[in-house]
Design goal:
This protein is mostly helical. It has nine helices and no strands.
Length: 189
C-alpha cells in the first residue's frame, strides 16, 4: 500500500525529530526528506506547530497500541501490571517519541492543553485498568482517576529520571527498580 503525501510528510517529520531533535523539524527539511515541495508540506500542515502536533498524536497512537496489548492478561491486576510494563517498554524503545509527548516543555503552541491528560485515551486506559482492579477488590479506594494519576506520576517520574540521565543506573538495574517500585505501590493501594 502506498503512503499518501501527508503520510510521507508526517513520517519525515517524525524521522527528523527522532534522529536530530525538534530543532531539525522545519517545513523545508521535512519536505525535502519526504520528496515533496515545501508548498506541498504547507498544503497538508498549515505550520510547523501543526506538523509537530501530528507527530505527537502519532506517538500517542503508538503508545496506546502498546498499552492495549496488556488487555490479553487474564485478571485485572495482571492487566494493570502489564500496562506498567508496556509503559516502560514503550519509553525505552521510543525515547524521542516519549520525550516529545511527555518531557518537552511546550515550545510551540501544541493544542494539548495542560489538563487534556484527563481526556487522553492512554490515561483513560489506565483509569479503566485501575477501576477494574477496584471492582475486583484488588485495589482499594473509590477514586480510580486519582489512583491512576498517582500511578502515572510514579512511572512517569521514574522513566523521566532515567531518560534524562538523572538516575545513575544501567538499564537492567533501572528495569528491576521500576518493577519493584510499581509492585510496591500497587500492593499498598
Amino acid at each position: 500500500m502506498s503512503h499518501s503525501t501527508k503520510d510521507r510528510i508526517l513520517d519525515a517529520a517524525r524521522d527528523l525529530f527522532v534522529e536530530r531533535g525538534e530543532a531539525a523539524v522545519t517545513m523545508r527539511a521535512v519536505a525535502g526528506l519526504a520528496g515533496v515541495s515545501t508548498m506541498a508540506a504547507y498544503r497538508h500542515f498549515p505550520n510547523r506547530e501543526a506538523l509537530l502536533l501530528a507527530v505527537m498524536e502519532h506517538g500517542h497512537d503508538k503508545f496506546l497500541a502498546a498499552m492495549s496489548r496488556a488487555l490479553s492478561a487474564a485478571v485485572p491486576l495482571q492487566r494493570l501490571t502489564a500496562s506498567g510494563d508496556a509503559y516502560l517498554e514503550f519509553a525505552l524503545a521510543n525515547p524521542r517519541d516519549y520525550e516529545l509527548m511527555f518531557l518537552r516543555p511546550a515550545q510551540v503552541d501544541l493544542t494539548c492543553a495542560p489538563l487534556a491528560w484527563r481526556d487522553a485515551a492512554t490515561f483513560r486506559f489506565l483509569v479503566d485498568r485501575v477501576a477494574e482492579c477496584m471492582a475486583a477488590g484488588t485495589l482499594h479506594g473509590d477514586d480510580p482517576e486519582l489512583l491512576a494519576f498517582s500511578i502515572w506520576a510514579l512511572v512517569h517520574g521514574m522513566v523521566a529520571l532515567y531518560l534524562t540521565h538523572k538516575l545513575a543506573a544501567d538499564e537492567p538495574t533501572f528495569r528491576a527498580l521500576y518493577r519493584r517500585a510499581l509492585t510496591h505501590a500497587l500492593a499498598r493501594a
